[in-house]
């Protein structure tokens, strides 16, 4: 019988989520390869829609019952004894794939029309504001200000762990930053094994350059159907930068960066 430990996790709203440490169970279970949607394509699909409504499933994972034969696999210890889940708990390696499969089955006749779902998050979109109470700025896609501020407030990394933290934050913004790989190239040598961490002038210049770029608040557009696309490719010695743009009303608009 499996017997996992309890791991309390503080959520963004300050509440505590009680989870079980299912790492050993996850390592022993086969992986469900049911694919999740590509978030960037979901964002682009909101093009020309004047209003969107966002819906978050309430205790979403707990809405799916466990197969009775699998319930004992989720057993966890407490001071009052050993318990197991009758509904799908947070922390199982296949919960995302299981939930996505269920959502696509439930909303099958609405998907790719006016509904998009990513695990327990849904967006309902309408081309006219009168169809929704939630207004959305048309077309432009911007970085969440909190993500920009988190990088702008960061001091220069003092060790490899702080550098990995920086790169993790930048990874969320890759589609907004031109040639991100090239901009981060000075950091690559510091990530190598057995190389002393020495933050030099080249690293400092690259770090400040990234901050300066983000301070300009890069804005992208969502692609508009039937408008011509333009692909730019810039090859450098150690990186390749790609920009997908679109021409609309005789103006060129940036839509996507890749490197």
From TrEMBL:
Gene3D superfamilies documented for this protein: 3.30.70.270, HIV Type 1 Reverse Transcriptase, subunit A, domain 1
High-level lineage: Eukaryota, Viridiplantae, Streptophyta, Embryophyta, Tracheophyta
Organism: Sesamum radiatum
Domain (Reverse transcriptase): residue spans on this chain: 9-138
Origin superkingdom: Eukaryota
All residue ranges annotated as the Reverse transcriptase/retrotransposon-derived protein RNase H-like domain in the record: 199-258
PANTHER family for the chain: RETROTRANSPOSON, UNCLASSIFIED-LIKE PROTEIN, TRANSPOSON TY3-I GAG-POL POLYPROTEIN
Protein name: Transposon Tf2-12 polyprotein
